[in-house]
Amino acid sequence: MISHPALNAILNGSSGVFVTVGYVMIRGKRILAHKTCMLAATATSTAFLISYLIYHYNLYVSGAGTVHFPGTGAPRYAYLTMLTSHTILAAVIVPLVILSLVRAFRGNFPAHKRIARWTLPLWAYVSVTGVLIYVVLYQVYAAHP
Question: How many Å apart are CA 135 and CA 137, to the nearest integer?
Answer without folding.
Answer: 6
